[in-house]
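$ run holo --ligand "zinc ion" --emit tokens
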Amino acid sequence: MIPKTMSVMRTIAPQKLGLFQEKIPEIKNNQCLIRLERWSVCGSDIKSGWDHKKNTRGYPICHELAGTIIETKSEKFNVGQRVIALPSPIDIGGLCEFMVGIPEYMAKIPNEGDLSSWVTCQPAGTVLYSCQQIGTIIGKKVLILGQGGIGLSFAAIFARSGASQIICSDPIDDRLSFSKKVGATHVINPSKASIDDAVAEITDGSMADIVIEAAGYEQTLNDAFRLVKQYGKVIIFGMVRDGNNPSTLTSIATHYLLQNCPTIIPTVGGRSADPIAHIQAMVDLKERGWWDPGELITHQLPFSKAQQAYEMYASRKNGVVKIVLHDD
Ligand SMILES: [Zn+2]
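-- output --
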């Protein structure tokens, strides 16, 4: 039996989730109804949604979602199929118990295996998409700025793609231990040592062929342009943005650009022509045993403790990397 109403959470004030009871949506032709069972907390929620200004209806939050189809009007998806689903652009966000699934926004998950691990294929899939835009990684010296869930995913994927050096930088030592676990060849804590000197020494003075900005700060964006070798590549993944002020401008030291002339590649999987293909590809690679992004999960909490989960994630304390919420 499908209940009539469900719990929905959205941000109602900076860093405050509000709980709403809302009608369970009806599905139209070609759609499915999904009972959500896992929700994973994402840095982009913290950057763009968590600080969102007061809004009585609430600001939608959460897009890393997995669950089971309980009703279908789609020929491609049967009842009982487990899926990763992206909220549609007109949706209420993903921090809710039931969601309308649209085939173009759903990836099939195998019946076996822990759903918490599977849901992490959503963020890892967006990193896979980013890596697909870089060109060859084999034999390259790569520097990754930021070792949250995204930066660590880059490290794990590069380790499996033949990078010659995987240099990871983060001011939190716990995260650097994690970096080594997933495949970093070198780690740097920029709050303890000069990152410029460290990268020069590790790369024998050549600097990095590829720099990934996965931290989302003005300073790390400038670091990327400065630490890349001449004619190297800078991949922008992190969001440099103040949630309350999306039009804030970012300062860039343009002399780094003119000195190093990098190719700059901003990547956003969700804005690609097919926003689900790279997530399905990550699911298939995990199934094959290539890499399990579930190893990045450090904490799991029930859905009803979402407020606490978001606070823990934003604090970056107690070794937190990836938090997955499960149904109560
Ligand atoms: Zn995300």
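-- notes --
The chain is about 30% helix and 25% strand.
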